[in-house]
What we know:
- The chain has 186 residues and is mainly α.
- The protein folds into two domains: 2-85 and 175-183, EF-hand (Recoverin, domain 1, Orthogonal Bundle); 87-170, Recoverin, domain 1.
- The protein is built from ten helices and four strands, in the order αβααβααβααβααα.
- The protein has helices at residues 2-27, 35-41, 49-62, 72-84, 87-98, 108-123, 132-143, 153-162, 164-170, 176-183; strands at 32-34, 69-71, 105-106, 151-152.
- The strands form two sheets. The protein has a two-stranded antiparallel ribbon with strand order 1-2.
- Helix 1 runs antiparallel to helix 4 (72-84) and helix 8 packs across helix 9.
- Residues 1-6 have low confidence and may be disordered.
Amino acid sequence: MMGQEQSCSEEMDLAQIQELCIVFMKECPSGALHLHEFKRIFGVPSSSAEESVFIETIFRSFDTNQDNALDFLEYVAALHLILRGNLEDRLKWSFKMYDKDGNGKLDRQEVKRIIKIFYKIKLQNSDVSLTPSEICDRIFDLVDQNNDGQITLAEFLEGAQQDEWVMNILKLDINVAGWVTQNWGK
């Protein structure tokens, strides 16, 4: 029985990916998806600065050749990661989102920047009583193994898997998949 459920959800994911690819063709006949279209597709209200910055960060993390547009391959890779990516892939992607300057290490500034955005979107209404600064400190306490004030990808991957709370924050799990499927095709 379990095996059947698994394949059913996988088929649904593939169907979703196909559907989203068709939408891409329709929405982006030029073959490139620009940031403003990306925001519109995700239904991000221009009034929400945090969601806007978050979506921009997501967009940049998928724009691998940094031409300020997602081509079809970048877009499919993004969907695949969001809808079907395994934990390590998703954590590597999150790391890229945190790593604003792209130097392969996270400092407190970078971590706090994303936590603040994440906090506004997701944590505000949850039972988290910590401030973004306290969350940042807790992450560094748990994840920065050599206490050099920077988190490498290896520390990030290892730290995330040792603590469920950290995992949820680091994975940036705002249910992007649900968001994608809800807002597409509106």
